[in-house]
Amino acid sequence: MKIPILDLKRQYQSIKSEIDSAIARVIESGQFILGPEVEAFEREVAQYLGVKHAIGVASGTDALWLALKAAGVGPGDRVIVPSFTFFATAGAVCNVGATPVFADVDPRTFNLDPSSVQNLLESDTQLQDQAKAIIPVHLYGQPAEMDALLKIARQYELIVIEDAAQAIGAQYKDRAVGTLGHLGCFSFFPTKNLGAYGDGGLVVTNDDALAERARMLRVHGSKPKYYHHIVGTNSRLDALQAAILRVKLTHLDEWTRARQKLAAQYDQALSQIEGLAVPYKAPDRTHIYHQYTIRVLGRDALQQHLKEHGIGTEIYYPLPLHLQPCFGHLGYREGQLPESERASQEVLSLPMFPELTEMEQKYIIETVENFVRVYR
Ligand SMILES: Cc1ncc(COP(=O)(O)O)c(C=O)c1O
Fold first, then answer.
1. Residue-by-residue DSSP string for 310-366
2. How many Å apart are CA 322 and CA 102, to the nearest integer?
3. DSSP-derived pairing of the beta strands 78-82 and 131-134
4. Whole-angstrom Cα distance, residue 52 to residue 206?
5. How many CA atoms are closer than 13 Å to the CA of 239, on its beta-carbon side?
6. pLDDT one-digit tens code per residue, 72-109
7. Using alpha carbons only, how large is the chain's radius of gyration in Å?
């Protein structure tokens, strides 16, 4: 049997007629950039998330860059981010001219650890002066510890930009992630739970002034056209992607439930295995399982074993950001953020997508169990 970590072709087959007619509608309209299709998607996704403003942009990376810019973060500012995340979280900080400050993660959830953030700020008066924002990431689809992080942000007057790229629809205390801080950022990269057929992203906020700035920044800072108030960029969601996303949004909750069911089945079978931890579910929030990520000793050998049996897996992420070569000048050392470093050695994401069949999942579970029996 061959089982990829994700199979987008199966999803397309299940919604083919809806997608094909949405694409035809846009092509026939002749309007490809922004316009009514993007506006309709922005309204629908804002309603889905329960937020006042949703601004469609070119990617999740751009959403972070635009949110930072809209919030006025720039040269001389420092921004606290987790070390264990996708590169874009910190890359966007550098690309507005600010400096990332890496904090450690909670070993159970892999999300930003509030006590690590508190310790950084308490022990460094210069950081207290220079820190302008914090970016919690809702990694793998599970909300970060938002109450504690928002409290620290209030204490030190930090702007909170949520990186919700992997967590659309996940809730923290009955509110959608992305809507809890000042600004929220989403990615519609094709592999995401709500994925476009190309790049796409979204900035959300309840703040009218921040929304206005983000809207201007995505069209070179202009309003109206050709009158430029600030220097922005070209970062727009295109109409084809918006039309595709409108179709997919109506299926998102049903896909999330399928992911949660698969996760519960994985949990039940794999939690019996010694030396392997299934994803921890923190209280007061929902996990939408963008990834089903286990923590396991002998991770690389297990990955190889699964590969030999036709099963695709991924390591998100093999090197924490504070040890990346491009951040060498910031002076971080190995051992400084131990939980991020340990996570990067032990995590493994298993196949997870709504169309994964019971038979396939059974085979994956048996193959993991076999590995444990033979090699341990
Ligand atoms: C946590 C996180 N932040 C940011 C991004 C960037 O999104 P994009 O790939 O759409 O630029 C991604 C996705 O790739 C992500 O997983």
1. TB--B-S-SS-GGGSGGGGGG---TTSSHHHHHHHHHEEEEP--TT--HHHHHHHHH
2. 6
3. parallel
4. 5
5. 16
6. 999 999 999 999 999 999 999 999 999 999 999 999 99
7. 21
CA gap 328, 35 in Å, rounded = 43
67 half-sphere exposure, CB direction, 13 A CA radius = 42
What stretch of H or E contains 273?
Answer: none
CA distances from residue 93 to 98, 132, 133, 324, 376 in whole angstroms, order as listed: 5, 11, 10, 15, 43
- Residue 353, C-beta contacts closer than 8 angstroms, at least 6 positions apart: 6, 7, 8, 10, 11, 259
Q: Which of 68, 140, 189 to mutate to test the pocket of ligand 1 (most atoms within 8 A of CB)?
A: 189
Q: Helix, strand or coil for residue 145? A: coil
pTM given for the model: 0.98
Atom of ligand 1 nearest to the CA of 59: 10
Q: How far is the CA of 86 from the centre of ligand 1 (A)?
A: 7
Cα–Cα distance, 258 to 321 (Å, whole number) = 32
Q: Which two tokens stand for residue 151?
A: 């409290």
Pocket of ligand 1 contains residue 343 by CB under 6 Å? no
Atom of ligand 1 nearest to the CA of 61: 11
Between the CA of 234 and the centroid of ligand 1 the distance, in Å, is: 18
For the stretch 103-136, pLDDT in tens is: 999 999 999 999 999 999 999 999 999 999 999 9
DSSP state of 74: -
